[in-house]
């Protein structure tokens, strides 16, 4: 039976919905800017409830971002890198998104290495290959997952991008072909007031052009994860689980 545990992977702590005795897949979901470290735990539970076939087969890890926002008056909030919220607000107000797609955030490299270390430890301790790892996340967490997916020594089994956007465009354009044939679920609200829908289509087009297998879900709604996007993530995991089981 799956249980919720708290584990440490290098410098990152993570909530883990376990799969015993040995998972066939590990899904790693990174939360968004300003969320508490346990923000995605209910979503992990929702996935297992909607897809019982994943129980005891898929271990779900939800790492806590390393940066505390307590000094900004948000004591329970965390981030993968700092954001200039005033600048982001001006960008949205002026619809000047070209700067956003070229941005290389401060501390992205640090969080990238922390997540890569976590992946390596999970693969080693659980006996999994890169193809048995699914990366994903929401908002800022999905951007980190996308960046890391392009930098793993071997590509992951899948990528899930909930309300993400295109960053670091020059580098991502060069690295995106590493995701050729990788299944990707991407969702974005057409009324998203934080990250514009247009920026999601830029990322979709980049990954599609690189040969990734994109399932894109544009939905009527704001900056959130609709059930349709959760369902698509579960279907992706089920499809990989079938492949993994066939090879074991």
TrEMBL record:
Domain Phospholipase/carboxylesterase/thioesterase: 14-237
One matching Pfam family: Abhydrolase_2
Molecular functions (GO terms): hydrolase activity
Origin superkingdom: Bacteria
Alphabetized Gene3D superfamilies for the sequence: alpha/beta hydrolase
InterPro entries hit by this protein: AB_hydrolase_fold, LYPA1-2/EST-like, PLipase/COase/thioEstase
Keywords: Hydrolase
PANTHER family: LYSOPHOSPHOLIPASE-LIKE PROTEIN 1 (PTHR10655:SF17), LYSOPHOSPHOLIPASE-RELATED (PTHR10655)
Family: Belongs to the AB hydrolase superfamily. AB hydrolase 2 family.
Record-given protein name: Phospholipase/carboxylesterase
């Amino acid at each position: 039976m799956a249980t919720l545990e708290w584990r440490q992977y290098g410098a990152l702590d993570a909530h883990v919905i376990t799969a015993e005795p040995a998972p066939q897949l590990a899904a790693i979901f990174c939360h968004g800017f300003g969320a508490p470290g346990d923000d995605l735990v209910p979503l992990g539970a929702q996935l297992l409830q909607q897809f019982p076939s994943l129980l005891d087969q898929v271990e779900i890890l939800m790492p806590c971002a390393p940066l505390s926002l307590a000094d900004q008056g948000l004591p329970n909030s965390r981030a993968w890198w700092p954001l200039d919220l005033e600048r982001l607000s001006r960008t949205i107000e002026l619809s000047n998104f070209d700067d956003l797609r070229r941005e290389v955030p401060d501390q992205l490299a640090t969080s990238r290495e922390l997540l890569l270390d976590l992946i390596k430890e999970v693969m080693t301790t659980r006996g999994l290959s890169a193809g048995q790892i699914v990366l994903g996340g929401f908002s800022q967490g999905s951007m980190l997952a996308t960046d890391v997916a392009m930098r793993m020594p071997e590509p992951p089994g899948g990528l899930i991008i909930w309300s993400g956007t295109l960053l670091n465009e020059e580098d991502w354009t060069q690295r995106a072909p590493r995701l050729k044939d990788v299944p990707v679920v991407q969702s974005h609200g057409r009324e998203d007031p934080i990250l514009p829908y247009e920026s999601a289509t830029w990322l979709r087009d980049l990954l599609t052009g690189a040969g990734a297998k994109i399932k894109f879900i544009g939905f009527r709604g704001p900056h959130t994860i609709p059930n349709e996007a959760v369902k698509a993530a579960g279907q992706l995991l089920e499809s990989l689980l079938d492949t993994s089981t066939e090879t074991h």
